[in-house]
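Lab meeting prep.
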Amino acid sequence: MRFRSVTRLAVVVAAALLWSVAPGVTGPATATDSPPWDPSVLGARWLAAQLTPEGYVEGLFAPGPDSDATRDVAFTLAATGLERESFESALGWLTANVEDVIAPDGEDEEAGTMGYLIMLAVAVGEDPRDFGGVDLIARLEATYGTYEDGLYGPEDPTFDGVLRQSLALLAFLSAGVAPNPEAIIWLQNQQCDAGASDPASVGGFPNYRDPSVDCPAPSVTTYTGAETDATAVALQYLAAESLPGATEASTFLLGVQSAGGGFPWYAGDADSPNSTALAIGGLTAAGEQAAANAAVAWLVDQQIGCDAADPEAVGAFTSNFSDGGPDQFATRQAVLGVTGVPLPLPLTTWYSVGDPCAPEPTTTSTPGPTTTTTAPAAPATPRFTG
């Protein structure tokens, strides 16, 4: 556990007290708002530091802007209500380059990315019908049925069908736009039914399947059967709309949660910060707060704390692939997870907070000729030092 001055119990309690978003898009937090807690603050600061002065995230494997990473950083900062100046820089880059963001390298338009951008725009009071001059609602609607009936997006859905469909439906929900009813049926038909499907997949969602073929057992080797990520995002839509299938999806997620609180991508695999972050959104939307809190506690254990040897690593999250160092992809989703905000994003309230890693200040009072230095009262949420 990297936050050695915070017990697991304290983390779980803090998770149960995650800040709530007040109505209104701009302005400081009111006195009744719960402030963001330290893991969100440090994570948001690390993400903001990944932005160049131009407002984009540099590609990890190729020079130049990484549009997906920039989209994720902006989306997560909006969810936290932190690092507003950095957020606005990223938003400016996204709007100025919107065509390249939704169709990188001139390829097919990405329905999932448009879903993210619509939810982002609505959360911060922008118009999704005029996002950098683009009507994102109309563009997303125009992708309906271009690959197969009922599905948004023209791309092969083998590895993202349920994810992009769920994001599209959540985006329409956030914008108050009715989707094609057949799109909801398409999503529901992807859920693994009880009966002939393998019991380990029942209630969950695969990436994509032929509904006439029953779900096999989850397999990280073949990427078949129900998996955490698709199920978690689909659950957020089903729960938000009180649709059939939400209870079964929630039961599936609870069944794959590890004893330590984390979630694997596929049952039987190692716990993943990305999958755990998405599962938190699904469980929160479904009202399974105890399980969500346990997942937050596991996720916080993966965060690099204030006593890290490299100050630039503080706030980032590690993964199975990062050898104890920052994993940018994991952090982009993990900060959303520890913030505990399900999709679609609520309206953003912006916060200005202090540095959780700063030493506790002392106060000096002079009641008379004698000067006395006193320590401050203990904070409501235990501090951590790394």
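Slide two material, second protein:
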Amino acid sequence: MDRPSGLGRCRLGAWGTGIVVFLAFASRTEGQAVPVPVPTDTAAAVSGPAEADSTTVAAAVPQRDLLDVLRSWLFGRRVEPQLEGTLPSGISWTILPTFSYNPVYGFALGASLAGGGTLGKGPQARPAALVVSANYSTTGQLQAQFKGDVFTPAGGYLVKADIRYLDTNRSTWGLGPIGPDQQEYPMDFRLARFYGTLYRRTSGSVYVGMGYHYDDYMDIVDERAAQGETTPFTLYSGSALTRTRASGASLNLLGDTRDDIINPSRGYYLSGTFRNYLEWLGSDSNWQEFWIDVRMYPHLPTRSPNVLAFWLYSWMTFGSPPYLGLPAVGWDTYGRGGRGYLQGRIRSENQIYLECEYRAQLTRDGLLGAVFFLNLTASTEPVSGVFSRPDRGGGLGLRIKFNKRSRTNLVIDRAWGEEGSGGWFLGTTEAF
């Protein structure tokens, strides 16, 4: 069973980077929170008059963050030391050291280079977000990644990129929903990933695009299989494979009217992707996956700053995908799904995920907030392929405004799941 033991079951990693950086450097988080908010007038136009009124009410009260508190208590002025610069393109870059802890990696030290801004200045200009980060842990694990969402100056095209390299150890627990008899199976592997998608705007905030996606799992070691046991990985794969590759093309649909990416308060997000992995492109087998991601942010009550956020995604596969490429909690694009469970704790050929979170502002100046959330993960049984009962998760959390300019919060969540799963989830961006 997946039982937390003190901080030993906290999933921190990149989630905890911003908090530790604050404690060590008291630095501004525009670097961590790469995307910049859409101007208020644009957001109000998208969201309608009711939500625009809630923004007006909140703006009537001077907003505060932790840096304002430090100014009042310690420094007498707002201190925001960091290494940053702005290029003629309009993108501001920030370099920050990172220090994190995760039960998978141990303690990790690294750095991040983050950029945010807009390439254009007209009414159609959209925010760009880029981040390059790397760290090395006390257990000898290496992580490096680049993620970017860049719109052209007129907003007519969008380029999305996700490039990663992992040299890591991740456990699996077999396929299907959580059960009392499931066991943990540690696995070592290296992952090289390249995802790139080019979108073209068709109408308003709707984009269509084509992409290429490549995952190469190398030097796979199923530790228990190496000791002579039969494991879920060997049963599914037919043998103790040491390498699997998936290479394919995609068709994509995107609609996004959110006013912010790190802390949305209105609008919607809709993404649909069909990926076709083909042997002639270098894939080990022909298979497909279909992904739908929907997020909405209505206010409750309507004219209040409180948000009732919804997240629904459906992740389906067809054919014979590699075991490590199957749908699994925590392996969504941004690694935010399944609070209450370790990454990869629930894995199956198909998954449907639903999460609802109520985000309440506790103080009118925006310094403190709280959240309550519930999630359901429905997975298919490995033999019948039928969806079983969903695995439940939920929890509550505290929000402390870290930087009012980028609307970044310090996120402190306590979550629980089935069969003793649970732990602390810390970070600087909302789950969705």
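Talking points for slide two:
The chain has one domain: 6-427.
The mean pLDDT is 80.
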